[in-house]
Design a protein that fits this description.
six-stranded parallel sheet; alpha/beta; 6-phosphogluconate dehydrogenase C-terminal fold; Rossmann fold; homodimer; globular
Chain lengths: ~325, ~325
């Protein structure tokens, strides 16, 4: 198979990258950094000894340790790949031990709360450039990662206004080397955009799967059997990591509640149309939503294959 | 590629099958019936001359016509593959012209309303056995069909209590020949089950895509760009045929409103948990939903591949 990330870099971008948290994202980074030759040394740090054992068994890093302070000592790039709610504790632990001029970044799905949690713990000689790669799967842990996870996905950076432009530039090159497109915006705008493109969809998906599980008149085995009618699509994102998603909702409260309010209002309109047999309102709503999918496919963010390409239809004709 | 439907039948199950409506489902039936040798003759009937031209160009049937009365004259199996809201008109048109002993069936996503719409137009010498294959893609029209669409999917039959068991048996064999598993239930129970496994998911998906399209603070291009965070999953079913889905909601009102009420109640609970920072409620909800996806995968109704197998991850290790 051709390498989806292309040829390795001629010169590594960093001497020593330390990844804290080796779940889906952290382990994908480790694989991508190595494959692409982005750093000379990779250190994997995780508080869970079982994860460190897997990292060693999989050979994902040059060094693997539960000791964060020792692990980051010589790193010129440190990336927090932990749930958003854990950023505060980790930043407090490592802040004063970061090297002179090091870049600290993260991969959290929420940005304003992370900035607030991390910044107070950092000395002036560290460049904190928050980041969020909009990529993932429903699987978790060090075995779930793969090097091309970020290819053709967007990575949003939310540097502070007075950020060192050289640091922002190096971090952009880092993500571009992994195949991502980089976009800059404010933490607040990020949180609003992601509330609708990611957080609300997850909440809705978790909710409908929960509603289905609670029915008395329809058995769970019927829900499972007849899920191909649409329901199964929702179960994928409702299988995502519970800790990560709890932290997202606790840390992007205002934006999620705002989007949820709009969603509920719109749903009430459809509910009323169903109750009163207003077919035109239903038809109009169901028509205008097609254009958005077309846009997503045209931009390469989605497959045009029927059913997400789950099955390859036979060639009948 | 090996034929997903296996070897053709030794003896056709029917002499002459007439399909009314050659969209995704009708054209998939035409392809499957031919490939599997289920009928000696296939007649394709559609009120749209453009569809009939495509059916002829694709060679999907032995006869293709806009004349429903002539088309069904000699058929021993007639299947309505039209939107649920059109069943009444079509049944009225063809009812008195159906052959002695013919089986009439349909593929509608709603059953009680179809029974009510169709039954009054049928003579006693016709066996009406309603059916609903729980299968589909987000694409529509005669080009979108494929013969293996029903393979390993469920087809629900809702025969009346006094149905001819021989007719039910022949229709079951028909669907099994296409690779489907057949299940029998009452029209009312069908409508309740599908309200949660199919109708509510579609309504939610249409709604969230509509909500996203209406935002002022987040641009449409941002919604599209960052859709890989979860949103794009919803756009697939929100790209389904608007006419079909308008008719589903108009014809399964009570069950959909009941499920929607439960969904909204549950959502209010999550909303409150977010507002008050109740992480335990969020975590518990997000944990119990994983088991349902596991069940769907174990039953072969879903792929276990990450991200629906949209991309094949490189083998890194």
């Amino acid at each position: 198979m051709p390498d989806q990330l292309g040829t390795p870099l001629a010169t590594p971008l960093f001497d020593h990258v330390a990844l804290i948290g080796l779940g889906l994202i952290g382990s994908s980074l480790a694989r991508g950094i190595r494959r692409k030759g982005i750093a000379q040394t990779i250190t994997a740090i995780d508080s869970d000894t079982a994860v460190i054992e897997r990292v060693k068994a999989l050979g994902l890093a040059d060094l693997a340790t539960t000791d964060a302070v020792a692990g980051i000592a010589k790193a010129d790039l440190v990336i927090l790949c932990v749930p958003v709610g854990a950023c505060n504790v980790v930043a407090e632990m490592i802040g004063s031990h970061l090297s002179q001029g090091a870049i600290l970044s993260d991969v959290g799905s929420v940005k304003a709360a992370v900035v607030q949690a991390v910044s107070p713990h950092l000395p002036d000689h560290v460049h904190f450039i928050p980041a969020h790669p909009v990529a993932g799967t429903e699987y978790s842990g060090p075995d779930a990662g793969f090097s091309s996870l970020f290819k053709n996905r967007w990575c949003i950076l939310t540097p502070p206004d007075d950020a060192d432009s050289e640091a922002v530039n190096r971090l952009s090159l880092f993500w571009e080397a992994l195949g991502a497109n980089v976009e800059l915006m404010s933490p607040q705008h990020h949180d609003l955009v992601l509330a609708v493109t990611s957080h609300l969809p997850h909440l809705i998906a978790y909710n409908i799967v929960g509603t289905a599980a609670d029915l008395e008149t329809v058995t769970q085995s019927e829900v499972i059997k007849f899920s191909a009618g649409g329901f199964r699509d929702f179960t994928r994102i409702a299988a995502s990591d519970p800790t990560m998603w709890r932290d997202v909702f606790l840390n992007n409260r205002e934006a999620v509640l705002e989007m949820l309010g709009r969603f509920t209002e719109d749903l009430a309109l459809l509910q009323r149309a169903i109750r009163w047999g207003d077919g035109d309102t239903l038809f109009d709503t169901f028509t205008r939503t097609r254009a958005i999918r077309r846009g997503i496919i045209d931009l390469g963010q989605e497959t045009a294959a029927p059913d997400f390409g789950r099955r390859t239809p036979e060639q009948d004709q």
